[in-house]
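S1.2 Input.
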Amino acid sequence: MADESWRIPMLVQEVAAREQQPPSRYVLPEQYHPISPAVGVDMPEHIPVIDLSRLMASDSRDDENTKLRSALQSWGLFLVTNHGIETSLMDDLINAAREFFHQPLEEKQKYSNLIDGKHFQVEGYGNDSVKFKDQTLDWSDRLQLRLEPADERNLARWPEHPKSFRAFLDEYTLNCKRIKDCILRAVARTLGLNDDYFIAQFSVKAPSFARFNYYPPCPRPDIVFGAKPHSDAGVLTILLMDKDVGGLQVLRDGVWHNVPTSPHRLLINIGDYMEIISNGNFKSPVHRVVTSAEKERISLAMFHGLDPEKEIEPAADLLLMEQPARYRKVKAKEYMAGFYQHFSRGTRFINTVKI
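S1.3 Output.
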């Protein structure tokens, strides 16, 4: 039987504790090294900031909608302020996640994303799926949990320690759902669609996931990524960034830009589904994470997708004679399968559905 041990790499936190240099599986080909003349440029202009309270208020909505449309056309992402989530909850949740990742390995392994130690599943603690023997691995571990549909949550993968973790995540999830709906209504307005157009795409089977990312210090941040370049597959991602340690970079006009830390603001980016439904009016931003030699970094991404059986296609009201569909129709489950294959190779599945 062929040796398949390459499919199950050691957890990065363990690698970082044992190795003086990153193993070759994590090292990028030279042309992709994070440090180069066209990389890591501080933004010549700030990431757009959207005030959620103004976006909801009737007397200031138009101005904020204009800012939102500009943000989505120029960056595909934006920061949100006045979002209504208590800063104490945001800090408590990240601290609870940090406490989880700092536990002994045997405790964390109780929530492993490997069934019988070898069969990968999306939920749980561990690494991303390794699909190719020559795949370059990311310098990160993660805890990924299904949030919706609520009756499909696998609570066996939800940490029991720290004891406050589940309650914090439940409360944060409800807040993110409120923010997601508000943002989606506003995005629909910027496109001239009915306010509830995007919300109506979400059925009771639409999945959402929380992904806690843990990036240990890396001895060679010049040749190793925390997360390889990619866009997100779903409709919308709500990111709670580490408030002290940066590392996120976004690609714009062929140049990588550092995204500065912004304590207690949320970073929201659209996903590939939104790019398709908007018929390319808004582009899903390509982003990546670089590592730090001295400091660990933790972030929490909330991914909002669509029912696996849902057919994703450009909104009919956006199609004109001079602007026909730029993307073919594709089922969400087909998209996700292709997305993971391409992600493993460092390529983008969305390019295969363009017409």
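S1.4 Remarks. The chain has eight helices and 17 strands.
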